[in-house]
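Question: I have long wanted to understand how a fold can be written as tokens. Here is the record:
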Amino acid sequence: MSETVPTLREELLPSFDAPGDSPYTWLRDMAGTLRDHLLVHGAVLVHGLPMDGPDSVATAREALGIARHTPTEAFNDRGDFGDGVLSPITWPGERMLCPFQEGSFSRTFPSVVLTACLTPPDGDGRTHLSDARRLLDHLPAPLAERVRTMGWTLARTFHEGFGITWRKAFSVPDRAALEKLFEAAGISAEWLPGGTLYTVRRRPGVVDHPVTGEECWFNQISFLNAGNLDPAERAIMVKAFGTYLPMNTYFGDGSPFSDDDLAAILHAYDSVRTDVAWRRGDLLITDNIIMAQGRSAFEGTPEFLVALGEDQSPRPGSRGREPEGDR
């Protein structure tokens, strides 16, 4: 992303210092206040918590009164530490991570994301938060309206011997269980030669926030689009898999996003971006519908843990309903 676009000042993100004594009791007492801030600002940063492993993250989630969310589909091979605590998605540290909202390719997704910093990155590595309520105003009007009315399509292909397997991605033992999951999840599938599984699902690209009613950009159009791969890597993928790339995104009618469309989306993420610098013991609490989360390149060996919370589906009759004709 361009570094010439000014970002929001870091101090606009509400932050609190947890006391050294009984920090989880304090967190429990502050839960209502933090929730109120989430609805206004989209994210809250708490400093000074004893974040030292999966148990501490689960304890923080419980203190906040946040029910755990279990994803129905994994993007890639992600560490699972039990009790709803995960590693961040696997991504090269030297590469920037485009902002995205957890589970936005699924019918049911988490409404809250907790990110705990056990070891901060070296240097100036920062998390990027982009306000999905403001993002649409920074897109070309025709592009915003097309996604608003048509939604978006994710095509995902599982090739034997490449990447995560479909069994691991969907946590199922066999094809019968997979078909049952697809029926519930609104995913169409086709088996190709060689055991290759091709899947397609159509999702809303814009949803109404379930509490505030605000219109929010909610998708992974940019993050999962093949056009944002490194050109050399994309060429290798196309040569190996042809049109059945591991991941690609399209408009809701199946037509492709142009390079200009993708550039406009990335620019919009940048235009509404807040940067978060990390300290050991920080807990970042984000509203997953309001805030898309990415990061800059990271140096050193930073350690983070993630807890996803509170199942959410688009409200019936809202902009978040699935386009007509989808299963």
Observations:
- The chain has two domains: 12-130+275-312, 138-261.
- Helices lie at 23-41, 54-63, 132-135, 141-150, 166-170, 175-185, 231-241, 259-271.
- Confidence is low (pLDDT under 50) at residues 1-11.
- The two ends are 36 Å apart (CA to CA).
